[in-house]
Please model this.
Amino acid sequence: MEEDGVVRMIDQRKLPHVFEIFESRSYLDTAWAIKEMVVRGAGAIGATAAFAVAQAALSINSNDFDEFVAKLEEAANVVRNTRPTAVNLFHAVDRVLSAARRCDNAEDAKVRVFEEARRIADEDVEACRKIGEYGSEFIEDGDVVLTHCNAGALAFVDFGTALAPIRIAHYSGKKVVVFVDETRPRLQGARLTAWELKMEGIEHYVIADNAAGYFMKKGVIKKVIVGADRIAANGDVANKIGTYKLALAAKANGIPFYVAAPTSTFDLNCPSGDKIPIEERQEDEVLYVWGVTDEGKWVRVRIVPKDCKARNPAFDVTPNELVSAIITEKGVFYPPFSDSIMKMFSKRC
Model:
């Protein structure tokens, strides 16, 4: 977002077939873009939500500061109600609102909220670079790493979380091969992660979600690295649907299962994964798939019998006992996670 008040983002719905910038000119448009997954991924959602609140602030015409704050809070609630699971959204909205409340007039507040939104995005970039540095130590030359969904630059502002260790390992000269879960129903792995890895020149193979266990049992996959949308105080991890199944398979086959996420993804107010709200999206995402024909035509096709119904939870929760380590910009956390997480946040305070 620049001073013109326009938020610009890659339209992730159209990748990998079309690279197009979506321009949002109001906070309502930006909230819609979050809800409809023009932008997705915990960090990208958080930064976009912060800029949405900044857009709202710029649009409020009131010299009465109390009225200004009240209207800004109304707009912030619209943004909060877009998607429930990724906690970065809520942290970002609260930070921008706090920046506004610390002012004593509307004009100063408009400047401060924009600065705070920019700061949130910049912090994510630096955090992800550090995650990459810490996480790359777990990757050995010649490793085959499995990842799920998309936790790359598209999901976390310029660098990514789960892909950050892979990127750093690749840049340092290590040979890394990535197995990319397709990640039904929206295929973020097949469409987005594969696109990012192709741009980086990192060897990769897209696999059906159901093939991951096979490759683990065969000894092909050496590590699993995933991102997170919310991490509870006890280390339970909410991530894209299907992550829990991967963690179970990794445990059964003695394969390390790592979670890469910045500290902004932790929710200390959430004692365990049982308290994490899980978004359930519309059933059409399961009943239909979008694609591009050889002639370049976008088509949507139904893949189940007519009149069938579907359930579509967007996330699941992986219990902390299945997680080998959590890689953050502050370092690596090991079990017991409740202790290590609390120690880390107490140091920040």
